[in-house]
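Spend some time on the protein that follows and explain the fold to me:
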Amino acid sequence: MSTPRTLDATVLIATYNRSRLLDETLSYLAKMPVRADLSWEVVVIDNNSADDTRATVERHQPHFPVSLRYLFERQQGRSSALNTGITQARGHVLAFTDDDVRVQDGWLDAACAPLRGPTPSADYTGGPVRPIWEVPPPQWLDLTRGDLWGTIAIQDHGQVTVRYEEARRVPLGANMAVRAAVFDVVGGFRADLGRTGGRRVLGQEVPEWLMRARRAGFGGLYVPAMVVHHHVPAGRLTPRYFRRWWFGKGVSRAALDRMQPTTELGIDLRKTPHILGVPRFMFGNLLRDAAGLIKEVAARRPQAAFRHQMMLAFFAGYFVARAGERFSSPAYRTSNVVTTGR
């Protein structure tokens, strides 16, 4: 049973063993200017941490400008933690961010503005996630195009407000706000897809939830003024980390496709020919990326070559996932059914 909605907004932060970064995140939230007519709170969900997460929250509570609440969720996994927060939140708008970000002034106002009032212009919002580099970015990472940015959880679609559905984009979980009423219709995040402390496979809980929300008729806006800055540790700026991430994305995508067989591009996988359980068009992508890798290596263009490597890693993950199913045709679910979260 959900908590009564008595505030305009709740900021939700799921955290696991990152109390030092969480301390900084809470400090930035505490000093963020917020318009006087917006009532809000912050809820931190401790996902079974072994560090001083609780003490960190309690240290901020006495002087925090609004209610700062601590919740504990023993069930490991980001989805489980966020679902606990959703049920306990008192805001009509739920603003999601991470425990390793710095919110920019105006973040909450920008996140909530399209979602408030009797006739909101959107059901969810998202915005830029800009990097805080622990070390300078490597030369093989192309910062002029964003197709690899998701690996390190950064995103920027420019300075124009656009509808996510029209742009065929999705917000990142580190910077997303949703009208609470949408969760009442669509349900929460799937706990079997979300990241856990020691799990290698990437979480796909946000894309899967957005697919359900869109199928139920809800839509979102990319809001350029809704900015957060996200820590990018040195350990994530290695080719090995990128390869593992894209391999994991392939594995996770195979699972997501079974649940939601209509892709973001509108391809109905139930009507698509398959080879060894893999959509046939993916083999065309495989050949193009393999040829592209050879071409870019020969031309000594490391950034372009690296991108092709990541696409090959994605295919490998997807293929391995289907191999685990003995290459049988996937048992796709009916895509027009709105399922509830776990």
User: Anything to note?
Assistant: The chain has two domains: 7-237, 245-323. Residues 41 and 262 are 37 Å apart (CA to CA). The chain has a mean pLDDT of 91.
